[in-house]
Amino acid sequence: MANPTIPERKSPMEPAGEGRSLWRKTLEAGAALIQDTTPLKDFDIYVAGLHCAKDEPDMQMEAHHYCRQVNQDLLQCTIFDGNTIDANLIGIEYIISERLFEELPDDEKPSWHPHNYEILSGQLVAPGLPEIAERAFLKELMNSYGKTWHTWHTGRHDGEAGDPLPFGEAKLMWSFNRDGEADESLKQNFNRNMEVDEADKRNQRARFVDLAHPQHGVDAMAAQFEDTEPLPGVVDADE
How is the chain split into domains, by residue range? Predict the structure, then answer.
């Protein structure tokens, strides 16, 4: 059942293919009564924000994550292009703590993007949670890292057309790490339709700056964007 406190965000793409047959609908209804979907039941943490493809700064989109907290150091997430029943599955993300990141092999670390900008900027949100609960959850994600693969670029909600089916190879995604990196029209469209007051969230989360550690990957795409500004608390560990 939809949460009435969360604005609906429909997918920007209707996939290729015909409508479901009556037989298929009947089968699905029967399966819902008989079959167990246990592995999916705990994917009940919803966070939404913006992604870009690593080394493809113009490939940007909304990402609606539905996550399961495996343990204190690991979340695993499915990613959709919206939050309605017709949203398309476009990728996956694994989120790990700073402690687990530091234990990764050196050749693995470049695949994991930092999260501090997403949190401190107000760009990452947990729709439907009271503000105090959202801040408490995101405080737990400070200094964490994500490894994200998108298998389908369905387009952007502000008008850019995407692919009608998952084409090509999966793409490693990255985080934004400075003001001005996210396309302004995409960001404003997201904030308006998801009813996000980014400036207010940024002010509320300023108290987290003292918790922020320098992170690897902050500068990984810095040279690929123009006219950007750093955010206090978001520092590359290699500086």
Answer: 39-224
